[in-house]
Amino acid sequence: MPSPDSYSEEDVESNKFVGEIEEIIKSTGGLCAFYCESIIGCGGQIVLPSGYLAGLYNATRNAGGLCIADEVQVGFGRIGEKFWGFELQDVIPDIVVIGKPMGNGHPLAAVVTTKEIAERFNTGMEYFSSFGGNPVSCEIGKAVLEVIEKENLQEHARQTGNYFKTQLNNLKEKYPVIHDVRGFGLFLGVELIRDGEPATGYTKELIEFMKVKGILLSSDGPYNNVIKIKPPMTFNKSNVDNVVSWMETFLSNGK
Questions:
Q1: pTM above 0.85, yes or no
Q2: CATH class of 153-251
Q3: What is the DSSP secondary structure assignment for residue 14, as one 8-state letter?
């Protein structure tokens, strides 16, 4: 089913998406699972409409399916407001998949679920992984959690992210090419639109300009016109000022 896009569509209602998944269930005769990022990352940094996951989780469970939350990009306190992205929607998934930030660069991932669901996989078929349960990886994952807590990085992400978002919105007021600034904490998206069309080429030029200045950005979304901003959790307000200053230097050229 298509991703919600409350930034280019007016009056997006969660009931619309519940209706779509119910049609899928009706046409296929059932549903095994509903899998969704808690904030849509590569699809364009899309913050889900209020009630979106609650409605779709309910429809999925009524059809006998499981609800799976993808927290690979948004988990571990990055969004500031909450530790996990799905908490923004006041839901509890049946399965949560996590990775990337879990090991702070070390290859590490995990699946979290209930004992009941885990036991359903105990069918006599052995699951084997050459690297599963590596004690070094486990120690690294534990250390990451300890640092997040000790250095209060979730609150740091919230404060720095709010400041970053404010500065980006100040640019938006000055430069109409910035159509939207969205996200939470240090998980932000800046959508560029020019003459009513996705500014794909312009976005690429901005990214290349910033790279020369030592700032690495990338783009995503269906048209690659959304700049995704997901810096390290230690990113500070001085770093924000540097990024915003160079962005304005590019934007002010009026290209």
A1: yes
A2: alpha beta
A3: H
Question: Which secondary structure element, helix H or strand E, spans residue 239, and what is its range?
Answer: helix 237-251
* CATH architecture, domain 14-150: 3-Layer(aba) Sandwich (3.40)
Whether residue 157 contacts residue 133, with contact meaning beta carbons closer than 8 Å, is answered with: no
Q: Which pair of tokens denotes residue 204?
A: 């690429």
Task: Report DSSP state, residue 47.
Answer: P
Q: Cβ(45)–Cβ(217) under 8 Å?
A: no
Q: Counting beta carbons within 10 angstroms of the beta carbon of residue 104, is it exposed (0 to 12), middle (13 to 18) or buried (19 or more)?
A: middle
What residue ranges of the chain are covered by domains with CATH 3.40.640.10? Answer: 14-150
One-letter amino acid at 96 equals: V
pLDDT digits (tens, 9 = 90+) for 168-226: 999 999 999 999 999 999 999 999 999 999 999 999 999 999 999 999 999 999 999 99
Bridge-based pairing state of the strands 33-37 and 110-113: unpaired
Using one digit for the tens of pLDDT, what is the confidence trace for 50-82?
A: 889 999 999 999 989 999 999 999 999 999 999
Rounded to 5°, the CA angle 78-81-86 comes to 80
The upper half-sphere exposure of residue 126, i.e. CA atoms within 13 Å in the direction of its Cβ, equals 3
H or E, element range at 229: strand 226-229
Cα-based distances in Å from 190 to 26, 77, 183, 247: 37, 21, 9, 11
Are 98 and 75 in contact by the 8 Å Cβ rule? The answer is: yes
Number of H helices, E strands in the chain: 7, 9
d(CA 154, CA 77): 5
